[in-house]
Amino acid sequence: MQSFRTSPPDGTVANQCSILFAEIIIPRKWSAENGLLALIAAALIARSISDIWMIQNATTIESTIITMNKSQFRTALVKYLSALPAIAVVNNVLKWSIGELKLRFRTNMSQYLYAEYLKGFTYYKMSNLDNRIANADQLLTTDIDKFCESVTDLYSNICKPLLDIVIYVYRLTTNLGGQTPGILLLYLFFSGVFLTNLRKPTGRLTVMEQKLEGEFRYVNSRLITNSEEIAFYKGNNREKLTILASFNKLVAHLRKFLEFRVGMGIIDNMVAKYIATVVGFYAVSLPFFEENHPLLTGSKAGDRLSKYYTFGRMLVKLAEAIGRLVLAGREMSRLAGFTARMTELTVVLKELNAGRYERTMVSNSSVADAEIGAGKGLLKFQDNLIKFEHVPLVTPNGDVLVKDLNFEVKSGMNVLVCGPNGCGKSSLFRILGELWPTWGGKVTKPPAGKLFYIPQRPYMTLGTLRDQIIYPHTHQEMKRRGKTDADLLSYLDLVQLTYLQVREKGLDAIEDWIDVLSGGEKQRIAMARLFYHKPQFAILDECTSAVSVDVEGSMYEYCRKVAITLFTVSHRKSLWKHHDYYLQFDGHGAYEFAPIDGSEQQFGS
């Protein structure tokens, strides 16, 4: 095995975050996101000022109670009550700003990543040509949400403590000297370094948690997607074993992560809360025990008590701010995991859109010795022609199915493609559809939109009956092309499905078409879709296997009438008369391209 795996994205969490912010989350200097960041900062400042005011006013109220001064008590209480609405507004403006900022971050991330993911065939390449990202749906939904939530929470959880530290250090230094806050800041530094080193596994454990959550989600979605096939096989017990195995793997990791978090929680509480409080009591006691302190010496006991309440509470708030800042490191470690996941996704999407793939290769064929490689072939666009010149058919794993394929098909030359499973039929069509890169030679084909593919199990989109016929166009695009509902009804008539618009009450009917339509109806809808698009060439991959021979014949005759040249994968003998050439693969790397003269018996019946 040769492994071409991507290493983890380079750079620290800060560097990765700064790139994501500059390129995706806040791409412009003057933006609503920057305005919200400023609003949050202003709300945090207002909240810190409110905290100081409440400490001072609460101390005044308590002093009036102790001194039994009823008039001053009433004045202080009214003043306290009158400020509460403004404080409540500040708190809720802060909550709204954080929530709105998270939504905007998620919107920007989602729009950017979906634009990259759905650019060209990137969504196909990620799951079929590149194996660096597993379960992209998990990354594009759950992980984006958690990343944005973690970023916004971290912003407020760091800014508020930092602001509190600056304000309380200034107030305490001005009144009590620099020794008291200095002790706490020194404690902040050493405790922060200590806890940061202990939390290092958090990022790795978070990445693994999201990966296992994605795998568990995937095995559940497989059950829903393939429920009918599983039911026919009575495979519920086997599927239960698969799902429970994935779940147990997830639970084992979550339990391990939980045990780590509990251990870290005990240390966090001790270091960031309890010991910080002890250090705070010690620090605040020093000026009160000084014999010649300029502010406290000579004060009455009541004044000393009042000042202790004021400065003691400030010191408690300072200790709490230091504790929150230390604990913010825990959220930063968690953010590191989500940041690594988001960075890897953006890097892989950019590389896929640039035509670079990375996949585990199996060197059991002639790829290792051949002068070929993914993307080394040439691609030329030309109307009314499909031509392969010395093109190898190679799977993403590196298996060479056909070493040197050569044929030319002009408009009007219908071709029947046949051969055993795994011989290269689907590979040929994936190269034609630009889903797979060309490994060598030269491919000439019509431009995009002039080559259409219909699989054996046609795709039914979410939407109306009309949407099934015109897919991937929208109703507006249909009108711009000059098509009408009458045209669509004529296509339904050609495939003998006019009863559908009566049964489903019109073209605007919305149903779960995958379940509502039978296999034959879905295949005929796909042919109506082909007639609507009217391309130069069409690839029909066993797409009429559930359709009667007479209906099938009329559809093929219409294709020839409107000059749609066909590449058909089928073993039905009834289709010979609708084709002019055959391309047969033997499954051992050889092929034959020749006219159909009626004597070939190898196609089947």
From TrEMBL:
It comes from Culex quinquefasciatus (Southern house mosquito). Pfam families: ABC_membrane_2 (PF06472), ABC_tran (PF00005). This is Peroxisomal membrane protein 70 abcd3. GO terms for biological process: fatty acid beta-oxidation; long-chain fatty acid import into peroxisome; peroxisome organization; very long-chain fatty acid catabolic process. SUPFAM superfamilies: ABC transporter transmembrane region, P-loop containing nucleoside triphosphate hydrolases. It is found in: Peroxisome membrane. It is a multi-pass membrane protein. One of its GO terms (molecular function) is ABC-type transporter activity. The keyword Membrane applies. GO terms for cellular component: peroxisomal membrane.
